[in-house]
Design a protein that fits this description.
4-stranded antiparallel beta sheet; 1 helix
Length: 178
């Protein structure tokens, strides 16, 4: 099944792996094409690829592998459902694909560059601050709890503030917070 929901039969192919390293096997969502690489570029691109396997190879054989297929994602599930450790930011930052829970502990206001909302419909990102400084978006793409007008404000300048943002494919909507 392709990301569009269309059923598709993918032709058989041979996956060639590099010896003595970790190989990442992915499937492109748009056409189902399977590819292998030692780089994590496509592996980390959850918007365009499904993870299939990570394979560790010896000089001549496979020494171990991890099955990373997740049926929920193949059926349109959220690309951020894995358990992840929160990350801490102290200065301006760009939210990465694997960062869903972010702790901000800056010594001044911090600017966050959020992912393009249209690339991650339904994605949730939680941000909290430990410091009494604002957290703002680099773009006017955040809709606060009490209005439908997008702006840059994410968190007020009060330690302990937090917000859960959800992409509606156009903006980041603050769905919960204090």
């Amino acid at each position: 099944m392709l990301a569009s929901g269309a059923l598709s039969q993918i032709a058989n192919t041979t996956a060639t792996m590099t010896a003595s390293t970790t190989n990442y096997i992915v499937s492109k969502k748009s056409d189902g094409a399977v590819s292998t690489s030692t780089a994590t570029t496509n592996w980390d691109n959850l918007a365009e690829y499904w993870r299939l396997y990570s394979v560790v190879t010896g000089t001549a054989t496979v020494t171990s592998y991890t099955d990373s297929r997740e049926i929920g994602r193949f059926l349109g599930g959220d690309a951020t459902t894995r358990f992840r450790v929160p990350v801490t930011k102290t200065t301006a930052f760009t939210v990465a694909d694997h960062e869903d829970d972010i702790i901000v502990n800056g010594s001044a206001s911090v600017t966050a560059t959020l992912p393009t909302a249209s690339a991650y419909p339904g994605r949730k990102i939680r941000i909290k601050t430990r410091a009494a400084y604002t957290v703002v978006s680099a773009s006017s793409n955040v809709k606060p709890l009490d209005t439908d007008t997008a702006g840059t404000a994410i968190l007020a300048a009060t330690a302990g503030k937090w917000a859960e943002l959800v992409s509606d494919a156009s903006n980041w909507i603050i769905m919960a917070g204090n």
